[in-house]
Amino acid sequence: MTLLDCTLRTGGQLTGGSVPPALAADYLAVCARVGVDIVELGTVHDPTGQGAPFGDLLPVPLPDDHDERYGPRFSVLLDTAPLPVTDTAATAAAGRIAEALAAGSVPVGLVRLAVRYDRVARVAAPLHRLREAGLGVCLFLTDIDLASYPELDRCLGEAAALGPLDAVFLVDSLGSFRPERVIELVQSTRAAVTAPVGIHAHDNQGFALHNTVVAGSAGATWQDTAVHGIGPGAGLTRTEQLLALLGAAPADLTPLLALIATHVAPLKQRYGWGAGPRQVMAGLARIPVSAVRGLDPHAGP
Prior knowledge:
- This protein is an alpha/beta fold and 301 residues long.
- The chain is 41% helix and 16% strand.
- α2 runs antiparallel to α9, α3 packs parallel to α4 and α6 runs parallel beside α7.
- The longest helix has 22 residues.
- Pfam families: HMGL-like.
- It comes from Streptomyces wedmorensis.
- InterPro entries: 2-IPM_HCS-like, Aldolase_TIM, PYR_CT.
């Protein structure tokens, strides 16, 4: 199993910037102790494109004793929707991103390309450019629960045509995954692509942990989590819960629980992520939370 923790990225989304430096420093120290394989630092953009500029993804320096051989690796998420449509321009944008990552202070080795399930073919050119730069590449298939059977077949066929991938992630963008659908999607993906399958579960319906475990039983070997589920809306599968379910001893989880008590619980009190009524409604109806915003003014972000 490969555990990819999204705390820094989704925490930054929640706060509108980056997580507090003290949280980041303590979090990195804890990750190496509890068995996190990959830390996702944040979302990257074309340095010369529109939107947020490319910046330093880590609000604190790496610990002096960080060892790439034994400590967690680092990933970033690239939203491909803003990339140019033409292959030439998209390839150039991906090249600039690769150069910026190489020049950064953190050794990023993996880029996850977020793409809607019906637009996979258009990421071929930038994906190949990132791979040529020596970066590992993953597909991060958003809105996948909306795909019909013919659309799913086409999506996975296009994914298989992209060549070697580090993993293909099934993303519960709407918080709508049900266990039976998770099994179906994992099995279909495993049959279509040679890459490992991953799961990124949102907790709108309280199913995030269950869906992550079910995906693992169906053959998904990469799991996304976030400490205490931190993230916009309903949040994600909780790192501490998944580790406990996988057999981590209470003593091994003590540093992580201390991190939550010291740093994350105060953020939860301030930002209030979790499954409020409108998040539950959105998950049940398979619609974006933004579409029902305002129906419950007390539901949180």
